[in-house]
Specification:
This protein is α/β, with parallel strands linked by helices and 279 residues long. The protein has helices at residues 18-27, 39-47, 60-66, 84-97, 108-115, 145-161, 173-179, 203-206, 223-247, 263-273; strands at residues 2-5, 11-14, 31-35, 52-56, 71-75, 101-103, 121-126, 165-169, 186-190, 198-201.
Length: 279
């Protein structure tokens, strides 16, 4: 565990730092990264020893509460913040709270803007889904030597812009294996094989919580079946409640409290004598 100061100037303890990650890359030590959205998911990651967590920047507070010592990357989406200053402002705010890195899928200008402020910036190469029109749709990239070299050129651009790492999505296995040692960037592999420094997967894919997972996803659990069972149990309960209320079966004597013995009779007598004043 490393002692650090956050970008916001608060002392903290982290399992990993950028320096640690680079040392692990040099030593060939593989690391894990998982997405999290809630405090509960984040706590599970930290308890199970997951090396890194990636989150939507808006979920930072909840996730950090669950994983106070894990390296966290706060992610911005393509169209979440439009203006460069917006990207920078929100990146700084996330880092101020304690995020250890900032992910952006935007262009090199944004990467350089964030990196110039001393932030550890993560970019995105290979299949970038929202830019998939440039490569002919949703497909594996780097299946040819030419594309693999283009991938390396993109990584070099990220290096020049000051990025610390890059997500490598849906890239041919051999391509990343061959070029990973040609870049100083930390590579986060998702659907790109074991050639990356950090193997990244989404929580829902790992836990088997999606109907149609992508080819590169592997499930070690079956939370989808559990959720379906919970949903069915909820529907059964609501149906029973509705039916019993309509039939008069609920609320019943077992779920209500009566008056003190003899008091009901007194109440009825009092009501018989009660004559409201008409205004």
């Amino acid at each position: 565990m490393k002692s650090i100061y956050t970008y916001g100037g608060k002392p903290a303890r982290r399992n990993l730092t950028i320096s640690c990650l680079r040392a692990n890359k040099a030593a060939g030590i593989k690391m894990t990264q998982v997405s999290a959205q809630t405090e509960e998911e984040a706590r599970a990651c930290e308890d199970m020893g997951i090396d890194m967590i990636t989150i939507a920047d808006v979920d930072y507070d909840a996730v950090r509460a669950g994983a106070p010592h894990t390296f966290i990357t706060g992610s911005q989406t393509m169209c979440q913040y439009y203006e460069p200053q917006e990207c920078l402002t929100h990146a700084l705010k996330c880092a101020e709270k304690g995020a250890d890195a900032i992910f952006t899928p935007r262009g090199m200008g944004i990467v350089e803007l964030l990196a110039n402020e001393g932030l550890a910036v993560q970019g995105h190469v290979g299949l970038v889904p929202r830019k998939s029109t440039w490569i002919g749709g949703l497909r594996t990239y780097g299946k040819t030597a030419e594309e693999a070299m283009e991938l390396l050129k993109w990584m070099r651009r990220y290096e020049d812009a000051g990025a610390a790492s890059v997500e490598v999505e849906c890239v041919a296995v051999e391509a990343l294996q061959a070029i990973n040692h040609k870049t100083t960037l930390l590579t986060h592999s998702i659907g790109a094989g074991s050639g990356g420094d950090i193997i990244f997967s989404f929580m829902e894919d790992i836990c088997g919580d999606v109907e149609n997972p992508p080819r590169h996803a592997k499930a070690w659990g079956d939370m989808l079946s559990l959720r379906k069972a919970i949903s069915a149990e909820r529907n059964k309960s609501l149906d029973g409640f509705q039916a019993d209320v309509k039939s008069g079966a609920f609320p019943d004597a077992a779920h209500t409290v009566g008056m003190v013995p003899g008091e009901h009779e007194k109440l009825m007598e009092a009501l018989d004598k009660f004559h409201p004043v008409h205004r």
